[in-house]
Design brief:
Helix content: 25-40%
Number of helices: 12
Strand order of the largest sheet: 4-3-2-5-6-9-7
Distance between the termini: 59 Å
Radius of gyration: 21 Å
Shape: elongated
Number of strands: 9
Length: 270
């Protein structure tokens, strides 16, 4: 049995009741492919293999891979991939399946980065059931006006339907973390949930808007990178663009709904 490594942010799930609840939430089918990121010691992997047509398990820890190969040596429906989820091409990993669902207990230290990677590759993913630090899920699901709302909230809202499922206490893991976790379901939308002319520009503007949270949207736009400044100048400046979009210049980014970000971008991208 391998031990958890702090540098990987590993906390192995050991509570069978929590595993059962996750599997029940996923409701695996015999005709599908499920991707598991970070199999760890295989507690969740074993249950998924019982009900899923094929499990693609992505494990970064090279010491865990041989342990998992031995543990599941007689299992035919497991494809174990020693790889970094941050650089994995999920379309290739799940082939020949055109789409898959993702199940993961994500390491706290890189959970946000992996989530962004999954959203980037959403074309081959239909749903994600993820266990994350509770504070991260609070940010993901934060509504406009909440102090928890940020770039990640807008990104997830644009491409997924988010649903909090249940909280998981620290005692469900070994070693025991200092924080609670939450399991969340993210259903990938068929298209972005706003009418926006330039998606790449949208995320540049959202990033600029949240650059300094205490500043107004006007001041953050005025302090935005040079590439955005050039676009704003072509439209008459930040104040004019905000006026055209119908957005008061003294508002802060956390108060914006997704549709308002789209309105702002569309005013810039005319």
């Amino acid at each position: 049995m391998t031990t958890a490594k702090r540098r990987f942010g590993q906390n192995f799930l050991v509570d069978r009741n929590v595993v059962d609840r996750i599997v029940a939430a996923v409701a695996p089918r015999s005709d599908e492919t499920i991707v598991e990121i970070g199999s760890g010691q295989g507690a969740l992997t074993a249950r998924l293999l019982e009900a899923t047509g094929r499990v693609v398990a992505i494990e970064f820890d090279r010491e865990l891979v041989p342990f998992l190969r031995t543990k599941f040596a007689r299992v035919a429906n497991l494809y174990l991939l020693e790889a970094d989820a941050l650089t994995t091409d999920f379309r290739k990993a799940i082939a020949p399946a055109p789409r898959a669902r993702v199940v993961a207990n994500l390491p706290y230290n890189i959970a946000t980065a992996i989530l962004q990677r999954l959203i980037d590759q959403r074309e081959c993913l239909s749903e994600m059931v993820l266990m994350l630090q509770r504070e991260v899920v609070d940010r993901i699901t934060a509504e406009p006006g909440s102090s928890d709302r940020g770039y990640l909230s807008v990104l997830v809202e644009a491409y997924c339907q988010a649903e909090k499922l249940f909280d998981v206490p620290p005692q469900a893991f070994r070693p025991v973390p200092k924080v609670w976790s939450t399991v969340v379901r993210l259903r990938v939308r068929p298209k972005i949930a706003a009418e926006v002319k330039d998606e790449a520009l949208l995320w540049q503007i959202v990033s600029a808007g949240f650059a300094q949270r205490r500043k107004t949207i006007l001041n953050n736009l005025r302090d935005a990178p040079e590439s955005i400044q050039e676009l704003l100048k072509k439209r008459g400046g930040a104040s004019i663009v905000l006026c055209d979009a119908g957005i008061p210049p003294l508002r802060r980014a956390e108060t914006f709904a997704l549709e308002e970000w789209a309105m702002l971008v569309n005013a810039i991208a005319l």
